[in-house]
C-alpha cells in the first residue's frame, strides 16, 4: 500500500468516535492495539486494508460526526469516567459515545462542547492557537479599576504569568473576562491571587459558539453555520 494513503494510528482510532487522540495514545502504550497481528507502537500508521484490533476486537465503523453545545450545571464533572457518578456523559445520556472538549470545574456552569470527533479536540484546546473563551464571574466583594487592570494585564499563577485578557465590569461584584488560554482553574486562581473568592463562574462563549438562551442542563447540536465558522477558525 502507498504510504501516501496511510494515517497515524491515533488519528485512525479517534476517527471511529470512541476516544480522543490523546486517549488513543494511552491505549497504544498500554499494549491494547494490534495492526495486522503485530503489537502496535506510537507512531505506527494505518493503510487501507490493514486490520486494527482493540483488545482483540475490530474497531466499530465510524459514526456520523456529532458536535454538541451543552449548558453544564454546577455539580456535573467533565469526565468520561463512568465510575464518577456525576460524570457529564451519563448526565447527557446521548446514544452515541461522546466526550467533552476541555473541561469546566465541577462548581462552574455554562458552555462546554462535546463531540465524537477526536480530530476536533486538539485544534480547539491548543494554547498557541489563542482561541477566545468568554466568562461571566461574580466574586465575594466589590471590585475596582485596579482589580480589572490586574486581571487584564497578567498574573503569576502555576509558575507562569497569565496572558493578557479582556476584562469588563458588569456590576459591583460582577465582571466579564475573555481568555485566550485555559490553565487549570485559571480564573479562580487569578481572583484568589488578588484576594477575591469566586462565587459564580459561567462560560458563555467558546470561539464563535455562544451559550445564548440554551437552558441549564440542556444540549443542542451545532448548526451548519456554526460548524463552518468554527472550522474556518481552526
TrEMBL record:
It catalyses: uridine(2604) in 23S rRNA = pseudouridine(2604) in 23S rRNA; uridine(35) in tRNA(Tyr) = pseudouridine(35) in tRNA(Tyr). It is an enzyme of class 5 (isomerase). InterPro entries: PsdUridine_s_RsuA/RluB/E/F_cat, PsdUridine_synth_cat_dom_sf, PsdUridine_synth_RsuA/RluA, PsdUridine_synth_RsuA/RluB/E/F, PsdUridine_synth_RsuA/RluB_CS, RsuA_PseudoU_synthase, S4_RNA-bd, S4_RNA-bd_sf. Its EC number is 5.4.99.-. GO terms for biological process: enzyme-directed rRNA pseudouridine synthesis. SUPFAM superfamilies: Alpha-L RNA-binding motif (SSF55174), Pseudouridine synthase (SSF55120). The keyword tRNA-binding does not apply. Keywords: Isomerase, RNA-binding. It comes from the Bacteria. PROSITE patterns: PSI_RSU, S4. Residues 7-69 form the RNA-binding S4 domain. GO terms for molecular function: 23S rRNA pseudouridine(2604) synthase activity; RNA binding. Belongs to the pseudouridine synthase RsuA family. NCBIfam families: PRK10475.1, pseudouridine synthase. This is Pseudouridine synthase.
